[in-house]
Specification:
Layout (H helix, E strand, L loop, with lengths): L1 H18 L6 E6 L2 E6 H28 L1
Antiparallel strand pairs: 1-2
Length: 68
């Protein structure tokens, strides 16, 4: 059960980062003579959501195997 709480904590942290933190920091990516600029808070948000999703799926799989 603690793994589900951990995944929920990561989602909450991702929402805090998305809405509040790192608003003036940007990441630029150079692809074929073109610069693409992304706010760092968007990049961090999606990374944290991805980690939380993976953590949740692994915890759900283990929980399902343990209870059956």
């Amino acid at each position: 059960m603690k793994h589900f709480a951990g995944a929920g904590t990561l989602v909450a942290l991702a929402l805090i980062v998305r809405l509040w933190a790192l608003q003036r920091i940007f990441v630029d990516i150079h692809v074929h003579d073109t610069y693409r600029v992304f706010p760092l808070r968007v990049v961090v948000f999606w990374v944290l959501i991805g980690i939380a999703l993976a953590w949740f799926l692994i915890a759900a799989y283990k929980f399902r195997r343990h209870t059956s």
